[in-house]
Specification:
The chain is an alpha+beta fold. The chain is built from 18 helices and 20 strands. Strands 3, 5, 6, 16, 17, 18 and 19 form a seven-stranded antiparallel sheet that branches. β11, α12 and β12 form a beta-alpha-beta unit. The radius of gyration is 22 Å and the shape is globular. The chain binds adenosine-5'-diphosphate and magnesium ion. Magnesium ion binds next to loops.
Length: about 500
Amino acid sequence: MLLWINTIVRRPKLATKLNVEMSRVKSVEEDYGKPLTPERLEEMIQRVTGWALLNGAQRKITATEACERVEHVAITLFPSILPADVLRKAKSLQTSFQTLIYKVANDHEFMKECFSGLLSVDAFTKQLWDIYETVTNEGPAQEISLTITRNDFMMEPAEEDSAKENCKQVEFNTFAVGGCGMANSMVDVHRYSLSLEDIPFEEKQLPENNSIDGMARGLVKAWQLYKNKRAVILFVVEPCTPDHRWLERGVYRLDRSIKVIYRTFPQLIIQMSFGENRELIVDGVEVAVVYYRYGYAPKHYPTDAEFKLRLDIERSRAIKCPTLAVHLAGCKKIQQVLAEPGVLERFIDDTDVIKDIRSTFVGLYRLDAKDSSKIITQAIQTPERFVLKPQREGGGNNLFGDDLRNYLEKIKESPERSAWILMDRIQATRHRNRLIKAGLGPECRNVVSELGIFGVYISTPTSELENFESGYLIRTKPEEANEAGLCEGLACVDSPFLI
Ligand code: ADP
Ligand code: MG
């Protein structure tokens, strides 16, 4: 998701772990270069943020209404050290995860088992579920579906050897994944900052990251499969989020004959209609592919008209990116159930793949099982070891620390607890970098990073047409921040310095 909101909490006090880690906190600036003087720092910030703007790592200025007034996004001054095998491993899992999620989305019985307990206590998910059920009962008007994913991980010191790192899954995003344009820009920005400081690096240590190319290829391929050269690709957006323009440019570069149109929910409510064979028509033009960058949060559906719109799109012949089934399969509830014993085996035969996927899971717990009171008590006693998550996207919805404890106390006996899942808090490997973001000092500080792997998946219910990994995004935040929000939070776009 694009937006994350942050709050700061005190870091859990894990004395022994802290001592072990203290010795290994690394940074490119301090380990490979020399610490910057205050004068040099100021100059570096100016030059590197200028380079970021030049490379398109930009966003709308928050304080203005004018969409075209932009500033650089929050960035790290230098890339962050990342073991090359961690990036390789995370990337290598993408196609298996995509197949898994698609199989889940197509298993109506499984979806029903997962969601049945929470629909009576989660009104928003229920509304989406009803649309999904309606469409499933009617049968699909379009067999082909496109999904653009981002699998988010944090890196954790390996238990057997704290010098090694394992990637642990935060969540698998199937809807409106963002940050791809910024991620693309950062390799050039960080190659530049290293050069300014004469820090030597090999090209392969800051590898090219062409997430846009792959995603654009996915959109173009879906458009071709629709087989109507006059049909357009519809980007469902909120005004003024420039990130998806990168994708339009990617499409344009691949095939200039393909038209992309942008519409908001309110515009579509007025302008959308159906053709004779359930073609989706917007302003008289047929839509081949609907690409959602909006529609994941309850506030996007202020009235029934927005839900009706979603149902209409879902019922249409247009290829959806993603379908509602895949949207729902990306819910945290599914992630939690997939981590239960034996569940991966329902979808995957290859035991090596199962092992690899499972190795990225941390503890995930339902709160409505017979024996849930044990884990609930643990979380109330040691909230710093857990994250409490509802079925929401977009950041700012999870609970940490005291908020988690208080909320769990409140819901522990009530049916509402079925709407939440509990997750072990990942104790991410810390390193050091400078965060160039308004409201944060640029001093070299302890930070943690999140690695998101992008992917593209096109299929029919019975066959996989495309399944590939498509680059990555690294977000880095102060170690004490809870969430890694790029737009509203404390996180900065980063890139890896592979060792
Ligand atoms: P959303 O759908 O709102 O993006 P996420 O599950 O991705 O929800 O959580 C938002 C952020 O919260 C993550 O980007 C990460 O910074 C933090 N977070 C989530 N789960 C964990 C976890 N298990 N351990 C540590 N941090 C987490
Ligand atoms: Mg997330």
